[in-house]
Each structure stands twice: as structure tokens, then as C-alpha cells.
Amino acid sequence: MARQSHRSDQVEKALYRRHADFCKVLSHPTRLQIIDILHDREMTVTDLASRLGIAVGNLSQHLSLMKQRGVLESRKAGNSVIYGLANHKMTGACGLIREILLEQIKQDSALFKRLDRSHAFQAKT
Fold first, then answer.
1. Domain of 104?
2. Which of 44, 64, 87, 121 is the most exposed place for a label (fewest CB within 10 A)?
3. Domain count, the chain
4. b or e along 43-72 (b: 16 or more beta carbons within 10 Å of the residue's beta carbon)?
5. Do 85 and 71 touch, CB atoms closer than 8 A?
């Protein structure tokens, strides 16, 4: 029984490491933009670079890492390489995180407004 628990712990730790590595891939604003753009449709490297306003060489580094980690998949079409999301659940996960961040921004904004009113009141007295 203890042996199975030890294996289970190892599997959990490996999963946490994999999860952390996966999150590292998403820790760059350009990569998040790529996911957002590819949510709607697949695109060539050239089209993506144009849409993002970055050099193809810079974009290729991001795409390579994202493909390596299973975030994106690609296929050849003539002379072009077309990229798409490997799993569309990715946009749902990113969307949930974005919702949380927007809620935090609203809370911070409300706090700043209260603080501002408090300071304005103190300045008058």
C-alpha cells in the first residue's frame, strides 16, 4: 500500500512539473497573443508575423517552443507552414485566467477609488 502511495506521489510531482513547464510556455505576452489569434483559424508564419507586427525570425522562436511543448501543431502547405492550436481547450483555459485578472483589476480599481476619496476627504479637513 505504501509503495502505491509513493508511486502516486511521484506521478503527482511529475504532473506538477509538467504543469509548471507548460505555464512557462504561456508566460510571454506574444505567446498569449498567438493563442488568441489562432483560436479563430490556422495561419501561416508570415500572416501571424504581420498580424503581431513582429519579425518572422522572432515569431519562429516562439512558434518552435510552443510546438515543442504541445501548444501548437503545424503542417506544410506548399512553401508555407501553417500553425494552429493543438487543443482548443487552451483558449478556454486562457479565457478563465483572463476573467480572473479582469476581476482583480476591478477590485483594485474600486480600492483605489475608495483610497482616493479617503485622501480627498482628509485633505479638506
1. 88-125
2. 121
3. 2
4. bbbeebbeeeeeeeeebeebbeebeebebb
5. yes
Question: Mind listing the pLDDT tens digit of every residue in the chain (125 residues)?
Answer: 556 677 889 999 999 999 999 999 999 999 999 999 999 999 999 999 999 999 999 999 999 999 999 999 999 999 999 999 999 999 999 999 999 999 999 888 887 788 777 766 565 55
- CA proximity to 30, closest of 76, 2, 61, 75: 61
Does this model's pTM top 0.85? no
Q: Are residues 95 and 83 in the same domain?
A: no
The DSSP bridge partners found for residue 72 are: 85
Tell me: do 19 and 67 sit in the same domain: yes
Mark whether 1 and 28 lie in a shared domain.
yes
Instruction: Tell me, yes or no, whether 69 and 119 share the same domain.
Output: no
Query: Which residues, including other chains, have CB under 8 Å from residue 112's CB and lie 6 or more apart?
Result: none
What angle is formed at CA 79 by the lines to CA 75 and CA 84, rounded to 5 degrees? Answer: 25
C-beta of residue 90 within 8 angstroms of C-beta of residue 71: yes
